Amino acid sequence: MSERGRLRTAKDLDGLAAEGLRTLYPAQPKVLVGAASCGRAAGAAGVLGAAQEEVARLGLAWRVAETGCIGWCSQEPLLDLWMPGHGRVSYGRVKPADARRIIRAAASGKPDLRQALAWMAGDENPCTAVHTPYTRGSNGWFIGLPEYAELPMFARQARIVLRNSGIIDPTSLEEYAARGGYRALLRALTELQPEDVLREVTLSGLRGRGGAGFPTGEKWRRVREAAGNTKYVICNADEGDPGAYMDRAVLEGDPHSVLEGMAIGAYGMGAREGVIYVRAEYPLAVERLRTAIEQAERVGLLGDDIFGSGFSFRVRIVRGAGAFVCGEETALIASVEGHVGEPRPRPPYPAQQGLWGQPTCINNVETWANVPVIILRGGAWYASVGTERSKGTKVFSLVGNVRNTGLIEVPMGITLGEIVEQIGGGAREGRTIKAVQIGGPSGGCIPAEQFHLPVDYESLVQAGSIMGSGGLVVLDTGNCMVDVARYFLEFLEEESCGKCFPCRVGTQRLREMLSRICAGQGTEADLALLEDLCWVVRETSLCGLGQTAPNPVLTTLRYFRHEYLAHVREHRCPAKVCRELITYFIEPTLCDGCHACVQVCATEAILGEKKAVHRIDNSKCIRCGACLEVCQPKAVQVI
Amino acid sequence: MPRLYINNLSVEVERGTTVLEAARWLGFPVPTLCHADGLAPYGACRLCVVEVQNARGSKLLSACTLPAEDGLVVFTHSERVERARKLLLELYVATCPQSKTIQDLASRYGIRQVRLAPAWEDCIQCGLCVRMCEQQMMAGAIGFAYRGPKRRVARPFDKTSERCRQCGACLYICPVCELRCHGRQAETTLCSGCLNFAPACLDFHDHAMCYLDPCLACELAGPHRQDLLLPGRIGRASSGKDKGELP
Ligand SMILES: Cc1cc2nc3c(=O)[nH]c(=O)nc-3n(C[C@H](O)[C@H](O)[C@H](O)COP(=O)(O)O)c2cc1C
Ligand code: SF4
Ligand code: SF4
Ligand code: SF4
Ligand code: SF4
Ligand code: FES
Ligand code: FES
Description:
By secondary structure, chain A is α/β, with parallel strands linked by helices.
């Protein structure tokens, strides 16, 4: 970044934004590599290196930059090419050699569309309501390629939280400013009273995205009105749900949006200090946040007397201790204070007595990232998205047995069916989707018959689940629901802090009973006991972990009782998952004696000469399923 | 002074009073396992839950940690509370069937059957010993270590701390080990309590849970008397406490 003094006025911010625009939509072509953690895991670093080399080798004055998650995680590594006047095109599963080829082709003026997934004709900025077209006049370049907005996976999305992710270079303050960044903070500090900030946020109907969905405006008001001069704001980035990475994507793809949200909140509540509690396993997010904080401090967007308003705000990063339960707010505070990360009973709530005993507002990453948009567009605009009682959008990580997996952001009120069928693209080959597990480990399983349900806090709770922080796992006929419940209880048993008795002992007993049922040793009486145990764990546990831990069991018992009954009455696993309850055999009329199964069986359980019918010795078979995978004529079967 | 309603009785208490104290003051019995006068509330056993009504409905909260606030509406014996207590006690008996305190509570609340297999844990992690040691004995010689299923009471580095005064207060207050050792005894007493440890604390003192040096009584009656080492004795080795591995 060039030498720049402190920003004091709207004009200073305009200057910053103008500089950002030059790299965001440059007059020269630009190469973007999706290099968030997911991209890196798929090999984005190599692609980035290759792209840089190739651009240098050809002597091009092109910019090669990193960008955040665009949501097409199943196609990583992703490389995007910005061709001024023509648009932007995304390539999937790019290897370093492909990157070189794509750049060479583009440099010669003829785009290579092999591996191209879709092209982008423009972008929409929810902060400023500005649509930026990428094309000038007619566009012959990407003929035959779908435009992003035509793809069902993207058409149904509304990116407010992820507004900049995949578009800007997350290490560039200028590009963030070019997208309307820090304009909300400027507006709040120079035009609005703290009271106005609270009013807009209340009006927006924003509710916490970290799990419980508490109205954010109301929480802020409690903190503002709590006695005391020292107050804190905390950003909860402890995201510990297995398979969920919404918050990571925001921090890695658009770190300034969280800082700006926190600064605005601090102004509204009268806090001067902020803490971002980041999960230990998120080194890249920490790095991005550090860079962003330094950049903001250097130009006076954090620190003393921001925009000459007299308001001061500082943020520091605290790295988590690696425990799921530290995401619970009282445990998080204990952990920041240097104590063991165990929850304590509420009341008193953190809004009354939080960090160092002072009034504290804890919000989730996604909650904070919504704030700048609300301040710029107004609470009423925000409230126009979503349903009666759930406003705005929600980010989900869509995983499991659907065609398209990835990070999605959808307006509240979209139905589960629309997410699964349209965005997710429906079931995989030869399978039928039977449920979604929504809300993380302590969410619940909602059956396909209920896919008409809208995604809003109340509907999900009524169906026995929770919004949670945004895990969404699609389950199909190949999943055993008892086994699914057992898996989540195993996770929760391990992650329980162990402080309170019902959660520590209850999750252990529940997991034991589920394991027994999966092993065919359960009885019908166990089901009643399961329900009783679930009830007492939910009702009496100290914190949210225990209080929601029974959800996976309760919802599967409610909607998939027949699967439990098949296990306990007939000792049968309908999905053919539970190892103790299935038998592998070779259908003699189908076996062509190819011997392939014998090669893969680790326990030498398969008998038979080549070209003759084979047979499985069940006393040796460990039911690993390896033979099933390799048998071409599908002679290996499971009952 | 906050005025609250407990079982429809109105009561005014001093600020800082807990709902548990208020309920007991009115004479409503509320069972507890992790509460002791003089120790800071901990909220871990959950047996003291009461039903608290608010505008949005009602929920169960632990009375021992709940500050009495103006207008609070509390029920200590509602159907929901009773059901929670009974199920908790069933789970407690299954966890530590050998504890007399737990047996007594279970019998008072009419627990007639336990549907879960006994676990013979030797600690319910009520934290009384830890708080006793820290807050009354001012020693801080023991604490909790690890998380979740591995969590247990432990001494620093698994060695009896120099700060431990061998006062026995931890042992005295424990609701689970009461059938065992009664602290240092006169030479002439043969309490045999230590036999109920697994392993017997004299043999493997470093692994014993009571953190005390063995007394002469144990030495006389203790593990040397093989005839007393009954196979089915209570207090099997379990995950609950700081015993380390058997040598
Ligand atoms: C076991 C447990 C884990 C949690 N983990 C997280 C987390 O990783 N991130 C988060 O934002 N909130 C988490 N929460 C919710 C927080 O306690 C808290 O409600 C939230 O951060 C408040 O922010 P919000 O109002 O913006 O949602 C967790 C709660 C529980 C009980
Ligand atoms: S409910 Fe579970 S995680 Fe929460 S305090 Fe109790 S033991 Fe710890
Ligand atoms: S399931 Fe596994 S162990 Fe059994 S026969 Fe097939 S390969 Fe062998
Ligand atoms: S005997 Fe030692 S550990 Fe126990 S309370 Fe006394 S000082 Fe603490
Ligand atoms: S040893 Fe006894 S007093 Fe200490 S936590 Fe365990 S059960 Fe409670
Ligand atoms: S006595 Fe209140 S939770 Fe134990
Ligand atoms: S009598 Fe106390 S340890 Fe033996």
